[in-house]
Amino acid sequence: MRIAIDRAATSRYAITVTEKPVAAKEDKPHEAGNFERLMGLAVVLLIAALGYCVWQVAQAQNLADLTVATEAPGQVTPRDLKTVFQKSIDGSYPLKISEEEINAYLAKTLSMKQGGACQGFASLEKVLVRLEEGRAEVMMVRKFFGRPMTVSMWVKVEQVENDRGEIDSQVHMQGGPMRWAPFINQGGRFGRLSVPQGFLHLVRASYENLAACYREELHLGFEEMSRIRMEEGALILDPRFTQGSDTFGF
């Protein structure tokens, strides 16, 4: 109920009338919705995944199964692979070269340094080859600020023989489908991290320089040989054009 106030009475008896203050409305704090929570979780997971990938790249590959031929080369006397390949071609007989012998040959003959922007604090220590069934992994080991770092590339050889006995050979720079994405080919490994084939463009120049150092060996071993097969721990080469080889199962 409204109360009428006599203005004259208020001035005569010194009555003071005050109005009751109205409390200001407080805005309620904004609560994140389900979509915003999902986006925040996705960002956190993405940052964690990137951090894990960087950590994996910084960790050198475990090369314990390949160190015998390089750290103790006296245990394996490497043959001159150029001479071995040429004799096989001239004599028309197959070859079986062990992974250990290939690595011992690389340890004995490799002389290469990384140039460009990283010159002075990054150097190529050694090159190693790991042979598996149907593929090979070519690894480069570098020292970066005193710490070992590894980069690798997978190599596969695909051969098709027609009715006339002619063999078409193709070398693919990939190691088959990736585990977490079967529709993407695995290109190699940066540190311990498996990377898709497209990432090999980052190290292509280094592998081209390496191939240039062993141009003659690659020509004799992969272009002059009719049949090439990679198996666990060994490379099998056969220069013969005739179909079949009782020795190595071609």
Description:
- Helix 4 packs parallel to helix 7.
- A hairpin with a 2-residue loop joins strand 6 and strand 7.
- The radius of gyration is 35 Å and the shape is elongated.
- The C terminus is likely disordered.
- It has a domain of 165 residues.
- It has seven helices and nine strands.
- It starts with 6 loop residues before the first helix and ends in a 12-residue tail after the last strand.
- Strands 2, 3, 4, 5, 6 and 7 form a six-stranded antiparallel beta sheet that branches.
- By secondary structure, the protein is an alpha+beta fold.
- Helices cover 30% and strands 26% of the residues.
Q: Can you give keywords for this protein?
A:
250 residues, alpha+beta, six-stranded antiparallel sheet, 9 strands, 30% helix, 26% strand
